[in-house]
Design goal:
By secondary structure, the chain is α+β, with helices and mostly antiparallel strands. The chain folds into two domains: 91 residues; 127 residues, Immunoglobulin-like, CATH 2.60.40. Strands 1, 2, 3, 4, 5, 7, 8, 10, 11 and 12 form a ten-stranded mixed β-sheet that branches. A two-stranded antiparallel sheet has the order 6-9. A hairpin with a 4-residue loop joins strand 2 and strand 3. It holds the Pfam family DUF4352.
Length: 269
């Protein structure tokens, strides 16, 4: 019987360990950092939310790999999860701030474009005003001399009866052959807030044709309103206008500011 010689047995080398799979933890950390930084800028809330959510998911997956021994960067995975949550929180805060800012801006635009919708309808004649020659329609309704335009904030504007007046030699705005009339304008602040009178303006039209009546400046006559009117206080100014000799009426329009409807007085000469 033949003898077979077995080959010698050599010990096998141990298998090298599998490389650590640390990619998810690193990605989670990077996305968490970028997301958190984005969340510091309110209008980038959408970017912070997206990056935070992805970073949170990757961080949780990375922690699972660490538990199974497939990864070794536990710190990066935990940091990715924490920063992901921070990014999501900042995203919510940024969204609230952004939406509120946009809402406030829209409200301001609506207030500006709506003009003086807060102005009350003043008592007086319901007769509509005639249009000026340039085609611009006057707003509001005609008031009589001595009537007041009262607004929702309790600001009151009153225009007196016109008084015939002779301008001085150095008056500005008077044309020889025309007649001059002056009116007293009183602004009373019965509200609770201060009122800036610097924005008060006036213009006038004379006669049925609505001819522009130039404002006359002569010493104290024609001086504009200036300064702040405190609650409970009033200020007075005397304005004068130049009209054709045959004008039988004078339409005076006083605008307290951008947020108010102009008050309009139809005065008999």
């Amino acid at each position: 019987m033949s003898q077979y010689t077995q080959p010698p047995q050599f010990p096998q080398a141990p298998m090298p360990p599998a490389p650590a799979r640390n990619g998810l933890g690193t990605a989670a950390l990077i996305l968490g950092i970028v997301g958190a930084l984005s969340g510091l800028i309110p209008f980038l809330f959408w970017l912070a939310g997206i990056l935070g959510l992805i970073g949170l998911i990757l961080g949780l997956s990375a922690k699972g790999r660490v538990k199974r021994g497939e990864a070794t960067n536990k710190g990066a995975a935990v940091a990715g999860v924490v920063l992901g949550l921070v990014s999501l929180a900042l995203s919510v805060v940024g969204a609230v701030i952004t939406y509120k800012a946009v809402g406030d801006a829209v409200d301001e635009i609506n207030k500006a474009t709506s003009g003086s919708s807060a102005a009350k309808k003043p008592a007086g004649s319901d007769k509509p005003l005639e249009k000026a020659k340039d085609g611009e329609g006057a707003t509001g309704e005609a008031l009589a001399a001595g009537d007041s335009a009262v607004y929702d904030d309790d600001l009151t504007v009153t225009v007196s009866e016109p008084e015939a007046w002779t301008p001085g030699e150095y008056a500005i705005g008077h044309t020889e052959g025309n007649k001059a009339y002056k009116v007293t304008v009183v602004i009373e602040n019965a509200g609770k807030e201060k009122f800036d009178s610097a924005l008060v303006t006036a213009e006038a039209r004379a006669g049925k044709e609505g001819v522009q009546a130039e404002q006359i400046y002569d010493g104290k006559v024609g001086e504009p309103f200036t300064g702040t009117i405190l609650p409970g206080k009033k200020v007075t100014a005397v304005w004068a206008f130049d009209t054709p000799a045959d004008a039988g009426s004078l339409t005076v329009e006083v605008s307290p500011g951008f947020d108010y409807n102009a008050g309009i007085w139809d005065l008999k000469l």
